[in-house]
Amino acid sequence: MRNALSVQNLVKRFGSFTAVNDVSFDVEDGKFFSILGPSGCGKTTLLRMIAGFYRQDSGRILLNGQDMDGVAPNRRPVNLVFQNLALFPMMNVFENVAFGLRRRGEKGPAVEAKVRDMLERVGLPESGKKEIGQLSGGQKQRIAIARCLVLEPAVLLLDEPLGALDAKLREHMKVELKALQSKVGTTFVYITHDQSEAMVMSDRVAVMNNGVFEQIGSPQELYHSPRSSFVAQFVGANNKLPVTLSGGATPMASYARWSGLRTTAPAAGFSEGEPHDLFIRPESMVINPPEDSGFNILPVTVKAILFDGGNSRLLVSPSGTEDELTVALPQTRQYDHIRARDEIRVGWDPSASLCFRRSEWKLYDEE
Fold first, then answer.
1. 204-209 and 187-192 as β-strands: parallel, antiparallel, unpaired?
2. CA dist., res. 22 & res. 11, Å (int)
3. What SS3 class is residue 184?
4. What are the φ and ψ backbone dihedral angles of 147, each rounded to 5 degrees?
5. What single-letter DSSP state applies at residue 92?
6. d(CA 303, CA 295)
7. What's the pTM?
8. Domains present along the chain, CATH in parentheses
9. Residue 4: in which H helix or E strand, if any?
């Protein structure tokens, strides 16, 4: 399959600050590709270079195999959907969608046919005569996308388009956007700081941090096989325990008063005695496992029950420490008896944990 977009060794500096540092990736035609990262990581700068609003300091951008060096934004086969949508309130829905077609000189029945077809494809076939103020937030989102798609871009760039929506509508629109992209077949490049958006909608995701891509992969690969401490913390929920390691291919971890916890080999190797972080997903942790299970087991104190239906968890602290862990509650009522301040045990299969060298990055620093 051909690549709709190819980015090769892209660099962008603002004075002495490097916003994008030697980034390379390809997006196959018709795929949904997301760039995920915290605020200030460089993802919007990267998107604006693809759109032509910023000129790169070095590197190449190819769209449908054509080098975009020196090509003005309005000459590139891309369109950009902003968070604020930028719909024209003085025009009705039909005229908003037709705007780009008219700007490039199209007129008559051809414009009407294209707009009608696009409104049908985004699920709003009867909305042409409506004013923008009559639309819901989700409908405005689809009209903004229709206005871009009607121009048949090779790539549609989406700059955090769900950021201004309320939480419930955002959840709904994640499913809508994925279904729409599958239906129309246009290549989407989507940037977001919300890992749930990227994971739900994308065929492939690039995790960006400090101007570089830490990892590119399918949502499943990023979730189950993170290659860095940053990715382990940023993609999905993860518990982190500070440990030191010793041993060989299957290292032993020492945590606070507990030594001999086992873990899979660190992704990037390790130096014996060097500080590491041990990561365990909440859903990998088992409440009160049998002593002969072969699991790592820690005694803990229950600090709180975090009830959220199917996403309910326990907040616990390993005995004698101030650290906190979250433990997923199974979808049964067998643990309804657990209360705050109870002493229980939690455990996990060593193969369900990963270790990485200690990172100073903190999840909420930039949000």
1. unpaired
2. 5
3. helix
4. -60, -35
5. B
6. 23
7. 0.88
8. 3-227 (3.40.50.300), 237-357 (2.40.50.140)
9. strand 3-14
CA 136 to CA 62: how far, in whole Å?
Answer: 36
Residues β-bridged to residue 253: 245, 261
Tokens 């189950």, residue located: 224
Token pair for residue 179? 């279904």
Both structure tokens of 44? 């919007």
Crossing angle of helices 137-149 and 109-121, in 10° steps, is 130
Q: DSSP readout, 111-130?
A: HHHHHHHHHHHTT-TT-TT-
The pLDDT profile of the chain, 367 residues, written as one tens digit per residue, is: 799 999 999 999 999 999 999 999 999 999 999 999 998 999 999 999 999 999 999 999 999 999 999 999 989 999 988 777 778 899 999 999 999 899 888 888 999 999 999 898 888 888 889 999 998 888 888 898 888 888 989 999 999 888 777 788 788 888 888 888 888 899 999 999 999 999 999 999 999 999 999 999 999 999 999 998 899 999 989 999 999 888 766 778 888 778 888 887 665 566 677 788 999 999 999 999 998 898 999 999 999 999 988 889 999 999 988 899 999 998 878 888 899 999 999 999 998 998 888 876 555 443 3
